[in-house]
Model the fold of this input.
Amino acid sequence: MSDLRSLLHPKSIAVIGASKTPGKIGNAVIENIKASGYTGEVYPINPKETEIAGYKAYPNIKDVGKPIDVAVFCVPAAASLAVAEDCGQAGVKHLIVITAGFKEIGPEGKKLEEDLVKIARKYGMRITGPNNLGVMDTHTPMNATFAKDFALKGNIAFISQSGALCVAILDWSFQRGLGFSQFISIGNKADLNEADFIEAVAEDPNTKVICLYLEDVVNGDRFIEACRKATPKVPVIVFKSGITAAGAKAASSHTGALAGSNTAYDAAFRHAGVIRAKTMTELFDLADAFTKQPVPRGKNVVVVTNSGGPGIVASDAVETLGLTMARFTEETLKELREKLPPTANIHNPVDVVGDAHADRYKIALDTTLKDPNVDAAVVLLSPTAVLDIEEAARITIEAAKAHPDKAVVAAFMGGAKVDAGVKLLQANGIPTYTFPEPAVATLRGMVEYGKLRSEVAASTEWTFDDVDKAGVKAIFDKVRADGRDLLLGPEAAQVAELYKIPAAPSKLATDADAAVAAAEAIGYPVVMKIASPDIMHKTDVGGVKVNLNTKEEVVEAFGAIMESCKKAEPNARIYGVEVQKMMPKGDELIIGMTKDPTFGPMIAFGSGGILVNLLQDASFRLAKGLSKSEVEQMITETKAYTLLKGFRGAPPDDIPALVEAIGRVAQLCRDFDEIAELDVNPVFAYPKGLSALDVKIKLK
Amino acid sequence: MSDLRSLLHPKSIAVIGASKTPGKIGNAVIENIKASGYTGEVYPINPKETEIAGYKAYPNIKDVGKPIDVAVFCVPAAASLAVAEDCGQAGVKHLIVITAGFKEIGPEGKKLEEDLVKIARKYGMRITGPNNLGVMDTHTPMNATFAKDFALKGNIAFISQSGALCVAILDWSFQRGLGFSQFISIGNKADLNEADFIEAVAEDPNTKVICLYLEDVVNGDRFIEACRKATPKVPVIVFKSGITAAGAKAASSHTGALAGSNTAYDAAFRHAGVIRAKTMTELFDLADAFTKQPVPRGKNVVVVTNSGGPGIVASDAVETLGLTMARFTEETLKELREKLPPTANIHNPVDVVGDAHADRYKIALDTTLKDPNVDAAVVLLSPTAVLDIEEAARITIEAAKAHPDKAVVAAFMGGAKVDAGVKLLQANGIPTYTFPEPAVATLRGMVEYGKLRSEVAASTEWTFDDVDKAGVKAIFDKVRADGRDLLLGPEAAQVAELYKIPAAPSKLATDADAAVAAAEAIGYPVVMKIASPDIMHKTDVGGVKVNLNTKEEVVEAFGAIMESCKKAEPNARIYGVEVQKMMPKGDELIIGMTKDPTFGPMIAFGSGGILVNLLQDASFRLAKGLSKSEVEQMITETKAYTLLKGFRGAPPDDIPALVEAIGRVAQLCRDFDEIAELDVNPVFAYPKGLSALDVKIKLK
Done:
């Protein structure tokens, strides 16, 4: 873990290229540091000035002669290497390289960026950027950016890969009243990346939620590690762009980010306990809510309203987003029945109806929020002639305070008429929206965090110590020594066996006698397939014979397969014939692995056979860190699960065996980075046990 | 069609229960009419007053003695029947019954509402409401509501089933700057319903878009007819609530609306050319945009931005929402290359980069909007030190004006800094959003309307005149005469044949000889199944024998089936054994029909056999009005389509035959309202032709 305390709370800051000329970045930065109320030492570096912004200026950073925590670069890219050398010699700890003209401009800039990193490494300095807006910490306080304003003091840490977005969000945050602990523009991420900053701000007592705008992740493992460490303490919400082909293309022309597959990001975020915001609005709606309201213990929501329509809209949203309309206890219903007029609807959504004064909101909220079946509340209000809206707001605020374990959000609908009430709610920690749906969407995000947090806390990598790693290594070495990267069927089956993945017994036979011996050792009936790394579509060239029951059939099949294949593919390397036990038909499944450039091996499970492409019924998880409960979860996410549970009176399949097989495949892929591709298709699942029929392994 | 001109543009209005007392509804209504600048005659009706709000008051409406277009009821429910009688005698055309206390309070109120309708019918009066807010028309101008304000003049017709929502939306609309042509609260819809109002406002030259909040639809056919008539002229956007079980439950406790199934609503909206808004926000975002921007001809979008991050976000949204990032012509690229600096990205998204002055927006917009491959533009802006934001807004406005056939929307990100630019854009007809995603979502809705509009214009009901309706009627009559509602297999197959739906040949045999004769007439192999309306699970009781190839096998099967079934189900009515041609296996499909209470027969098509429940792979369309192209479309929407097209080298199935079979099933269901349920499962599709294996028909 990188210690970024001296970056976020520095005792001294040098501004290299500080300037007296308004409009220059070097002027904006030093004026911002001053205006932010920063109380540490400030050293403007500019050979032409003796004083800037009231601080004594130095011609070179080496002339300062005192410890310097942070140096902010406001010099042209061409000067950056020399300046970095100077910083190194002056013992600077952190460089914030605002300067642009690095990786984002092409190969030349990329080289410059690499050289800059080399210098930093040499002196043990860390780089933020280059090509960024700078760094703010409102509690230090410090505004080491060239933004026009300083963020409002608050508890959201915002980390952004886009500087322009930082500027826009910052500006917008004042209207919205969002307060930040840190506001960090990470630029090209030449050295410090999102993972470093997540770790750092998660440790900060002023941060209650971490929000990120990301176009890519630099190091998948580090990112997951940082997020899993943060999640039990504070929620991490990511808005990841570049999810579509068009977006990824735009991203790569932007900061040269190589976007990993969206599926891998989904799998990684889930394993890391990260909430993925689908829109920018959702990102900040959620961030705001997390700083104000507790994480609900469950997903049971009460909706309180004074008009039917919005109550229905909210109820729809609750169910559509996977939350539940709370069912009240008998006591709650009794109390509501006694205290509310007969025209009111005491079942959820609780409708206090149009002639309600604010007191009915008090009855509805006080009664339902103390119900153990209620985890959160959505308070809806439409203006009426008789309702004191500010009073309704105060009642909502008090009810939320009286139940600090339950999340309360509101949608006071209408404009000017509800304005005073809305302001009261917002000033008192009740997230408030114009319409019911975003209020419910916020609760959904909070509930999701609660779930992810406990999942992350409970999950540990599921490992098996009864596997024969050395045996597999030997097979891989042999394959390579043979000049191949594709394993033959019997080799792959053997690898599976060494990891106790139940593959159908299989042997390689180089002549007819050996084939008979193999068949008799395995037991009839058998299937025979040509063993060649060069023949992909075995059936098409007469390379497969099934349901062979006697010695004679095996002998005949051996001859026929060899002859037919040699004729069809005269240049193919043929190793003989694979003799495999013919297994009874079961439910067809697939277990597979693909390599993601960012997050490594990703395990897929789903419906197999010919249907796999048709249905595209698969769920994915990262192999690294995969826990047993994650495997169980991934099975339930597929349509195949309906079959596995026992469809239409069929007996259920052996799900525990399947869970274990997936866990073992994951371990195999973790243990051997050299596996480039792995596919077990089909796997037959039976009421007892399962059989991996066709294991394909390709090495890097 | 109902002529509602005298309701929306009345020459005279009576307010029954008009009052001088502020706070009373009867006071609010008359003051609103006056304040709205209504220029027709106004007659307050109140026996205790001689003048109200400056208008001469009358003790009873019958005393007015002049023609009265509209009477607004502000009297208690108990008085409403007598008042309606008076109105009828006075020759009133329209009653706006604001009064509550009708259907929404239970059986007693329902009776009162029915009696009110009877009186109205007797005199040829139409009722708006009861239990509503009233009606506004800003162009008349007339505010016959008890709302506190009058809507801004504009071109959105808003029709709402929730009065409270009307109040909230109206209040909010001032902040948002939304202008309305009509603002109509339809209440309990005792007489006039959504369809009547859609027809009326669609005819109004001041209405450019129709927006509805609905909890249910009263009459499916009328609704579809009204929408299909409106759609070619103006978009109809519906936010339908009560879509989930919880929402529907809330809806029924609200206005007693019986919600049809959400799938049927989807099918109906699509057929009617209605855009379904998924959130309240989307409803008004779209409504606003339709009044300001042209409907794009296609879905090719250009994104122009001065910062990378938001450009990626917008590109992602474009693809995620099913739009396309426009590919520019060579000319466009050449011009952009020449005029923009080399740092700019000239491919879509066009990034004029952070140091851009407003002139680069002009270059980007002028060049791309004239490209024939571009249908719409999203203009993104993040504030920078060098950019004149108001100038960028003016450039956007001018570019949009210069290309009146292309839709332009904007997201100027940031708060106070972009505020003046945002105001300029909004005042000049450019829909503007805080973040990129809702800007793109609006374009998506507009593109969808363009598509729906042309689909509605092109689609006519697909009918067949070579069907034997009388023959089917005779079979149904026979089944009924037999005291059954379920058709036996051979009867259902015969119905299919009479509609030229290719069913597998099937005959009923009452003894073994007849079975043999049937088998020989049909041709071997055959399948035999017990023919009984009381045996549901035929296989379980030994009621099915397959693959029978000889006379002997048929005789033996007949005996075995009869014996086994009589033993297992001694009380079942047994009609004999069905002898059916055993058809070769094809791709398994299902064609089915369910009855929706609101929209009538709904046709389903999807994957069949055991997979139908597992995959839930089905698409739905209403039988009424079903066009050939809609049938073709519904096939392409399923996963089964992948199989039908020819999966993994298999030859494609006979899709035209399938299209026709679905069209004929739809006609059968339209022709016979008495069909309660119909299921053809499985249908085997072949490279040439298809075969309906099992036709199930149940009558009402």
